[in-house]
User: What shape does this take?
Amino acid sequence: MAADTNTPAHVAIIMDGNGRWARRRALPRHAGHRSGVGAVRRSVELAAERGVKYLTLFAFSSENWSRPRDEVSKLMSLFVEALQREVDELHRNNVRLEFIGARKQLSPGLVEKIEAAEAHTAGNTGLRLLVAVAYGGRWDIVEAARSIAARAADGTLPVDDIDAGTFAAELQLGGLPDPDLLIRTGGEQRISNFLLWNLAYAELYFCDTLWPDFGDEDFDAALAYFAQRQRRYGHTGEQIEAAG
Ligand code: FPP
Assistant: This one.
């Protein structure tokens, strides 16, 4: 299906439900995360096929560091492994892979793999895949504020020039367009400290499917939901209809 005006340019996903998927099968939580990699692969393929331009996935939040040490360490190893295994395929499919989040908190080995994958795919012109690891929306906003404050303090940024555009440019998503559609799997209906600034006008789609089971039908249902929303950005419905 080709992209049309009803296709979201930027889709963000909170991939929830791996643990429950595993528990229902009497498997360790980690088996759910492993199975979740397959759903990541399917979603990337489908996003590209449907004409989505940016796909941002919430893989590990600032708060996920408080999970049991063994789960955190297995998740980090899974990221390294998935990077090793998937990057060539992403590259063949013209996908540009980037990471957002507090890189300083990650192990040197993982950072090395991330940087290599980003460099390898930097010239690709197809889907831009952004993976959020050690990411939190509040952290992102605080970092942006810190950077703006430093520029204001050293005199390179006049305080009166600070506006929403200056601020957005300092955030992890930088100059990328805001997500049009947020999908959250796993039945919970909350944002969980994901892209707090950037999701201001996103359409929100929640489904009960657990992340490892998320497939074409779920993705298409989310896109269909998006296609019938009227986005008003504070205007009235009549104003939007008149503008046509
Ligand atoms: C949330 O489910 C999921 C995570 C914290 C990890 C997401 C990671 C993956 C899908 C692995 C692969 C990712 C990439 C980008 C290669 P949960 O554990 O909170 O599930 P629960 O709510 O059922 O316990």
Remarks:
- The first helix runs from residue 18 to 24.
- The beta strands are 10-14, 54-61, 96-100, 128-135, 181-184, 203-206.
- The first strand starts at residue 10 and ends at 14.
- The pocket of farnesyl diphosphate is lined by residues 15-20, 33, 36-37, 40, 57, 59-60, 64, 78-79, 82, 131, 186, 211 (CB under 6 Å).
